[in-house]
Design goal:
With 173 residues, the protein is an alpha+beta fold. Helix content is 53%, strand content 9%.
Amino acid sequence: ELLKLVKKYKPETRSERTKRVKAAAAAKKKDPKSTASTKPPLAVVTGLQEVTRAIEKKTAKLVVIASNVDPVELVLWMPTLCRSLKVPYAIVKDKARLGEAIGQKNATAVVFKAVKAEDEGALKQLTKSVNARFMSRGELLRKQWGGLQLSLRSRAALRKMRARNAKSTVAKQ
């Protein structure tokens, strides 16, 4: 469902853009008073910087992040930012699938800023399911950050401290 909606709002290609602009210029040439629109069609926003800007300005309605980004530090902070600004986000399995949906080779993250009226219900339904899957588990995920395992060094120090405490309690008795 999510990738179908992303595919529906993929950005226009360079050739589509030139056709649209040339058609608007030809209409303007025939009738100078015509109001032929040169506005681009509604599309998802791609690119880390643009996605981040949309999240920070709270214009993002839904953020889609790829899971296999390399290096992972590029998008590691994005779910935390979305959670703190209460922007719904989803993590999809493959950056190649996300890129294919928008007509590129790969895509790390895309964001929906606006959709057409007929797709508003589908976006709300996706947002609802995404919130149930990712946003509501935010506190649980935060508590489990790092897998709740100490490093080898910390475990050894803790073992030594427990041994010292055990010896001191035996000596006091």
